[in-house]
């Protein structure tokens, strides 16, 4: 939803189809095989809606499934990982810290993406499995969130990183806790903004921007939508007009 | 696995088929509809292996799916919730606290089970969504676990409970942290032992105990088994001989 919000703000005339796989999340603790299967099923559902571009708005799925999705789909597929890596390089930092789920960090995808862009950078990574549950529990500014952040970030600070990539779409919601540990000067790279910017560029370049004004959002979830309707609506600051439960992958 | 370990110790001659739905856990944050569907699919898989009794060794699934499973299956189905409630009543406590996942607590199933057994008890409940992630992260005796336990348990202690039901099969693994908050005198009810005892009784009563000595355990998981093989083996204190990935529900 952090990526979706950025996109809606930048492209208010476009029609968005959003799928949240709420019946099978979190992805960050699952194997790459499982996440790849789930991402493929989600992509198949969205492609059946007639989309012109697919955004994989999840770092874990971007880390393990992007290559396969690009090979099998005949529309542009944009992940959040490469835009995040490019934004990290753009900070000018030389020693980059990356935090993410076990799946994202275990895949080594950020190291590979940063190495392709700037092979002389030093990259240090840390998995932060409790961050997503803390956000889901609503303890974003709780002292426990600060304590957990201190523990996860200490090894990165010991390596004297000079920028930190928030390599999970949940983590920008913990910015206050993370900022309290890394200090006010550390650049925090949130891939939502850079991903949205790249998508706008691509749509312009390919002549894919809508000419009609649709401005509609359709939200699909795989579990019952009660919780999503409430939290998603709060997050976007508006009541969600269209939320529907769907079954995918079977 | 806390229930499975108890059962293997008490019934070493029996053959056990264990299914861990690792591709879709956790259940505690999912809707009752989703958990009910997953539990039915898991039961169908296990019944196809020719089992003589089904243990629903998860409080969330016991809370929301037991009635449906009992109606549709023609073998005995034992959940962990009723044995836990009976063990709580047996402590002689008058003001019982129950902690569990959002799914278990939201279902009201413990209140109902305790009310059926002893309508004059006072029951107070609290959902503890961060406990399962803390166990999965291995922070069982970390100061963060104690701080989270303090926060979740404070409202129950304020109600002057005199026994606490650990209404999730993960929670006995947090006993040190929980004990540090509730003190050394509070009875902690772990349904694993009481469930195992009831199963032994039932098998004896129904003449279902094995006459051969099989003593075999077959573990099935729905995600790749690497992590399960390691953690499950550590937990049972022996290398798991048979672990296989299976696809269910499709």
Protein topology:
Two copies of one chain form a homodimer.
Chain A: H1 2-10, E1 16-20, H2 32-47, E2 54-56, H3 59-72, E3 77-79, H4 81-90, E4 95-100, H5 102-107, H6 109-117, E5 122-127, H7 131-137, H8 143-158, E6 163-166, H9 175-182, E7 188-190, H10 191-205, E8 217-221, H11 226-236, E9 243-245
Parallel strand pairs in A: 1-8, 2-3, 4-5, 4-6, 6-7, 8-9
Verbal overview:
The structure is a homodimer. The first copy, chain A, is of the alpha/beta class. Chain A has two domains: about 130 residues, Rossmann fold; about 110 residues, Rossmann fold (3-Layer(aba) Sandwich). Helix content of chain A is about 50%, strand content about 15%. Chain A is built from eleven helices and nine strands. In chain A, the strands form three sheets. Chain A has a four-stranded parallel sheet, sandwiched between helices. In chain A, helix 4 crosses helix 6 and helix 8 packs across helix 9. Chain A is globular and about 50 Å long. Chain A starts with a helix and ends in a 5-residue tail after the last strand. The model of chain A has no long low-confidence stretch (mean pLDDT about 95). The interface between A and B is medium-sized, with 26 and 26 residues.
In short:
Chain A has about 250 residues and is of the alpha/beta class. Chain A is built from eleven helices and nine strands.
């Amino acid at each position: 939803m952090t990526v979706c919000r950025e996109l809606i703000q930048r492209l208010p005339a476009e029609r968005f189809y959003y799928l949240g796989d709420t019946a099978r999340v979190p992805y960050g603790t699952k194997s790459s095989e499982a996440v790849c299967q789930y991402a493929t099923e989600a992509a198949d559902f969205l492609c059946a809606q007639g989309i012109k571009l697919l955004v994989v708005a999840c770092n874990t799925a971007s880390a393990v499934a992007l290559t396969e999705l690009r090979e099998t789909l005949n529309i542009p597929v944009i992940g959040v990982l490469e835009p995040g890596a490019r934004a990290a390089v753009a900070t000018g930092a030389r020693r980059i810290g990356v935090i993410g789920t076990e799946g994202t960090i275990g895949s080594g995808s950020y190291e590979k993406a940063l190495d392709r862009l700037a092979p002389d950078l030093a990259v240090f990574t840390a998995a932060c499995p409790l961050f997503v549950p803390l956000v889901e529990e609503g303890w974003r500014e709780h002292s426990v969130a600060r304590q957990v952040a201190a523990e996860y970030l200490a090894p990165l600070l010991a390596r004297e990183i000079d920028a930190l990539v928030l390599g999970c779409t949940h983590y920008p919601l913990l910015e206050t806790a993370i900022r309290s540990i890394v200090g006010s000067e550390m650049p925090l790279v949130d891939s939502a903004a850079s991903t949205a910017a790249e998508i706008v560029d691509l749509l312009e370049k390919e002549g894919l921007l809508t000419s009609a004004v649709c401005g509609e959002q359709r939200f699909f979830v795989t579990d019952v939508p009660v919780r999503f309707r409430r939290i998603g609506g709060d997050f976007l600051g508006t009541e969600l007009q269209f939320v529907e439960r769907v079954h995918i992958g079977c």
